[in-house]
PAS domain S-box-containing protein/diguanylate cyclase (GGDEF)-like protein (Marinobacterium zhoushanense), 254 residues
Amino acid sequence: DLEQGLRAAMAGEGELSMRYQPIFDANTLKPLGVEVLMRWQNGSGEWISPAEFVPVAEESGMIVQLGAWQMDEVIAQLATWDGQGLEVGYLSLNVSAVQLARDDIAGRLLRALARHHIGTDRIVVEITETTLMSKSPLVKNNLAALEAAGVFVSVDDFGTGYSSMSYLKELQADYLKIDRSFVIGIGKNRSDEEIINAMVALARSLQMRVVAEGVDDAAQLRFLQSAGCDLIQGFLLSKPLTVEEVGALFDSAR
Ligand code: G
Ligand code: G
Ligand code: MN
Ligand code: NA
C-alpha cells in the first residue's frame, strides 16, 4: 500500500525529489524566492501527489523523517545556488503540525543554516491555520524558537481553516497566503473578491505581507495587484521548477 511504498521510497534512492515554485514581487514581477514542493515517482513510474502521500506520512509519523531529510537537502541546495552566484532569495518550506509536535525542527533548521552559512532571514516556514492554533507546547516552542532566530512564518491556505485573528496576532506571523480557492473566484464571484480585499486589509493591519497563490491568468494578477497583494505565485508566472530551471530563471532575472 501507499505507506509501505513511501517507506521503501525513503529508504531507497531517486523516487523522492523536490520541485521549487517561484514566488514573485506582485508589482515588479521579479522572482524573490521559491516554495519547496515534494514529488514522488514510484517504482512503476507513477507520480503520486503530495496531497495523497503527505497525509499518509503524517498519520504514520514518517513525515518527521521525510521532513528532516528534505530540510537538509534544500538548505544544501540553497548553499549550492549561492556558490554558483545565483540569487535564489528565500526558501518557503511547508511544515506540518506533526513535524512541529514531534521533532526539534527549529534546532535542526538552525544547525543546517549555520553549517552552510545561510542567514535565518532566507527561510519562510509555511504552516496552516490549524497549526497556528495548536496548544502543543512543542509546536509553540518550535515556532517561538524559529521566530526568535529570525525565520519568517507564513500562514498557508489562509481562509480555509478556522482562522483566528488572536492567534495571528499572538504569533506575529509574517506572511499570509491567500488560498487558491479564493483566487479562482476572481472575475466570477463577487464574494471571493470581497474576501480577498478583507484579507489584505487584515494583513495590513497586522503588518503581514500577503501572498496570493494559484494565480492562473492575467485578470487575476491585475485584480490582486490593485487589491494590494505583495507577492504572487501561480502557473501564470511559473509552475514548480527543477533545480536546473530555478538556476536558469534566477540567472536571467539578475
Ligand atoms: O505540490 P502540490 O500542489 O501537489 O501539493 C499539494 C499539497 O501538499 C499542498 O497542500 C502542499 O502544501 C503539500 N505539500 C507539498 N509538498 C510538501 C512538503 O514537502 N511537505 C509538506 N508538509 N507538505 C507538502
Ligand atoms: O497548499 P500549498 O499552497 O502548499 O499548495 C501548493 C500547490 O499548489 C503546489 O503543489 C502547486 O503545484 C499548486 N499550484 C501552484 N500554483 C498553481 C496554479 O496556478 N494553479 C493550480 N491549479 N495549482 C497551482
Ligand atoms: Mn504551501
Ligand atoms: Na496553499
About this structure: The longest strand covers residues 31-41.
